[in-house]
Amino acid sequence: MIVKSDKEREGMRKASLVVKAALEKAEQFIRPGVTTLEIDAIVEDVIRSMGATPSSKGFQGYPNASCISVNDVVVHGIPSLLTVKDGDIVSVDITALLNGYQGDAARTFAVGNVSDADKRLIEVAKAAFFAGIEHAKAGGKVGDISAAVQLYTELNGFGVVRALTGHGIGHKMHEAPEVPNFGRRGTGSPLKSGLCICIEPMITAGDWRVKVDRDGWTTRTVDGKKAAHYENTVIITDGEPEILTL
Ligand code: MF3
Ligand code: CO
Ligand code: CO
């Protein structure tokens, strides 16, 4: 686990702003009838126009600039010619590299008119992030964040995915420590000022179990129920954490 210098933190802030801009552009673009590949092209354009590169592209063979995960797909959906339709929920997860620093964030967007239940799923993923970040302070432990995300999510009747976690971030997309969305407070790595992490609740309407498609990426719920994802890159400080991708 590496804490970041002032200079590195500045680099992380700038990379994160690229991701924020790409998410905002994707949100404006998403409507019934667009393909996930078209959404991905918009994302890649924003990233490159800001002088950054899409970190996902080529990462362990991943083919695209973004992960676009529709309905029962939790994460790592590969952009395709599939069109999104009214009532879908679409998670967009973007990592960008700028001047050697990574920013990483995800949102789940509603397409047209979605059910109240799906709206709540999206809202609880976001609120679970904020429940977690209340415990993201130097002097605490990673497990304090994990336990808060899990408690909030489960009290609201949703499941937390176990197979994938949040993570440290810096020059690399994934650094130590892992930041699970479940666990026990008081356990895990200590949180130190200058540590940079991604907190990213992945939550499900039904059971939390997931499976990976034969493409080796697309991760969906086993029970076929919908899932939502909400992620930001965050710097731990002695006081309030700094959320870089918001
Ligand atoms: N952005 C993802 C994360 O939050 C990682 C995606 S890796 C990819 O950790 F290769 F699937 F893009
Ligand atoms: Co991400
Ligand atoms: Co991440």
Question: What does this 3D model show about the protein?
Answer:
The chain has helices at residues 6-29, 36-49, 116-133, 142-155; strands at residues 53-54, 66-70, 73-75, 89-98, 101-110, 159-160, 166-168, 175-179, 196-199, 202-204, 210-212, 219-221, 227-229, 232-235, 242-243. The longest helix is centred in the first third of the chain and has 24 residues, at 6-29. The protein has a five-stranded antiparallel sheet. Strands 1, 2, 4 and 5 form a four-stranded antiparallel sheet that branches. With 246 residues, the protein is α+β, with helices and mostly antiparallel strands. The chain is 28% helix and 25% strand. One cobalt (II) ion (CO) binds next to loops. 2-amino-4-trifluoromethylsulfanyl-butyric acid binds next to strand 4.
Notable characteristics:
four-stranded antiparallel β-sheet; 15 strands; alpha+beta; binds cobalt (II) ion; 246 residues; binds 2-amino-4-trifluoromethylsulfanyl-butyric acid
Main β sheet profile: 5 strands, antiparallel
Q: Which ligands does the model contain, each kind named once?
A: 2-amino-4-trifluoromethylsulfanyl-butyric acid, cobalt (II) ion
Give me the Rg, rounded.
17 Å
Oligomer: single chain
Q: State the separation between the terminal residues, measured CA to CA.
A: 24 Å
Number-wise, the strands total: 15
**Helix-strand string:** HHEEEEEHHEEEEEEEEEE
Shape designation: globular
**How many helical elements?**
4
- Helix % is 25-40%
**Biggest sheet strand line-up:** 8-7-9-14-15
Would you tell me the overall average pLDDT? 98
- Percentage of residues in DSSP E strands: 25-35%
Kindly name the structural category.
alpha+beta
Q: Spans of 5+ residues with little confidence (pLDDT < 50)?
A: none
